[in-house]
Design a protein that fits this description.
2 copies of one chain form a homodimer.
Chain A (H helix, E strand, L loop, with lengths): L14 H21 L5 H13 L2 E2 H8 L3 H13 L3 E5 L7 E5 L1 H25 L1 H18 L1
The structure holds a DNA duplex.
Chain lengths: ~150, ~150
DNA sequence: TGACATAAGGTGTATATACACATAAAATTG
DNA sequence: CAATTTTATGTGTATATACACCTTATGTCA
């Protein structure tokens, strides 16, 4: 394989690949914990955000979650099917749809919180609290610089 | 909304959500740069890995990439359709399939590298080199602790 | 007010990620 | 060597992510 050169070895330093790998691993840890209550990490995040925001239209919710709007639509369809959120036409603007956590959604969130906490603690224990704090700080910094 | 309490505000400190957001943002930066040569970040990573590994069976490749094996299968199907990789039955083990970069794949990789470098540099510039180095270090540390 | 621009949202399509389950080949073992 | 176990891989299914394009409602301005 004459084309296998040192030149290609540096490609391993890809920051995109690096963060994606870690994100997959962390996600799997949280999925394992949250699976016990039948909820996914991304669903948990949406429920938690809705618990704080109250009724909110789709686009500002997507902004707040830094999520793609079209992906949010489809994710919310699942949450609605599960009865965790209510989606209604916007009260003033007929283009809007506003979403809010239902009582069932609050229940599911309450039920999930202890498992989420276990995931947070497990990650902290495995990664080391200092490393994790530094990491989160740097991730936040980078997020702000990229938005 | 009587159930909107401080209790839910702490949920914003989710490490899983934090890393996933940043991963999305970083991925989008790389996608923007790599789109010009018609290749995705994850495809780039696979091509780069294959350039270094040479012919390799699917499972060890998935291990090396820390990728789900079944996802790799489907990703490779696209790469094969594009003519960037060759997939053949394993020479000794009839269960295996071994994959290798084709000449077209090396060409595509060579073509993509300058754009990937631009993405790396853009990220470094936006995030700050120090922050980025720290981040990568912590990500690597966490990856090792979680694997 | 009517024409046009803008904003909110949905749909189609492609890839990414992960798990449960299925199949076939190879390895092991009695 | 035949039966069983393990290994390598594929398939079905569900969700995640992103972009291009479409529709409809709202806003703007001549």
């Amino acid at each position: 394989m004459s084309r296998r050169k040192e030149k290609y070895q540096r490609l391993a330093d890809c920051s995109c690949d690096r963060i994606r790998r870690s994100a997959r691993q962390v996600t799997q840890l949280y999925e394992t914990m949250l699976r016990e209550v039948g909820i996914k990490p991304s669903q948990f995040t949406i429920l938690a955000t809705l618990a704080n925001s109250g009724t909110i239209a789709l686009s500002p919710l997507a902004d707040q979650l830094m999520l793609d709007r079209t992906g949010l639509t489809r994710n919310l369809a699942v949450l609605e099917r599960n009865g965790w959120v209510r989606i209604q036409p916007g009260p003033h603007d007929q283009r809007q749809r506003v979403v809010a956590l239902s009582n069932l959604g609050f229940d599911k969130l309450d039920q999930a919180i202890p498992h989420w906490r276990r995931a947070q603690q497990a990650l902290s224990k495995k990664a080391g609290e200092t490393t994790l704090v530094d990491l989160r700080e740097n991730l936040l910094k980078i997020s702000k610089q990229l938005s």
